[in-house]
Fold:
Amino acid sequence: MALRRLAFALGLLVILPTACRTAPESHPESQVRAPAALPAPSPIVLGLPSKGTGGGLAQSDVTSLDRERVKEGSATTVPSSAGLGSAAGAQHQVSHRQYSVAALGDSITDYRTLGGGYLRHLEKRCPSIKISNFGKGGDMVNQMRRRFEADILSAPPGTYSDLIVFGGVNDLYSDETAGRINTKIEADLAAIYSQAKQAKMRVIALTVAPWGGFKRYFTPARSEHTQSLNAWIKSQKGGLVDEVIDTYPLLSCGDPERFCEAYEFSRPDGLHFNREAHDKLGEAVWAGAFGDCR
Structure:
């Protein structure tokens, strides 16, 4: 009997330590497990769909989408390439304006008299622009005013966003034959400018180009009248005129009253200038008034 009790006691000594080792800990903090590591976020490209398995876009993909999403006459927000792979990628605005332009002028603007080259250059610079040419060779400013009122103002509102006005030289050498003194020229130009502004058109005025080589009609008095008229046109900026392109210094070299010899046609007359000069003038018109078109 004593031997049985001894064996039972020895058995308990073996069982109890094992049970103590396998029983769960009772302290509550010992049951709080560390959270599993979160996966790294995929790169984010704002405003564009994911592609492939990586969740982001390659640089070439963004470039092609930029071209596809920027439409004529619209403003589109696209991701900056610097933001690839970053949730805080910067954005930039790509904005372009679309223009519908009416052009008033004389033979220097009229396509039928080998004019209008500056408008052709503007079209090349801005393929989306729409230009309606109302220039007519020989026109004085009062005739341009009548054409403006009959053909441009009569169009439905919003037809033309801008008006280019380039005239006055025919008036200046008609001071004696037609009484076209500066006050009359300025009054007609002011009427055109103000009516265009009332019609919600932006007005781009060009000063009279150098014409001192037109020796048959150019005189010291008409030179003074030209300078005075050009000064008045430039003074209208910020009022009746939105932008002024000063053609007088732009096209002259050496003699300020004559355009450069390199701008003459093979049969020069000192009044009409060649394609090179038209391109230079067109570039100035684009830079000064339409640089944000495409």
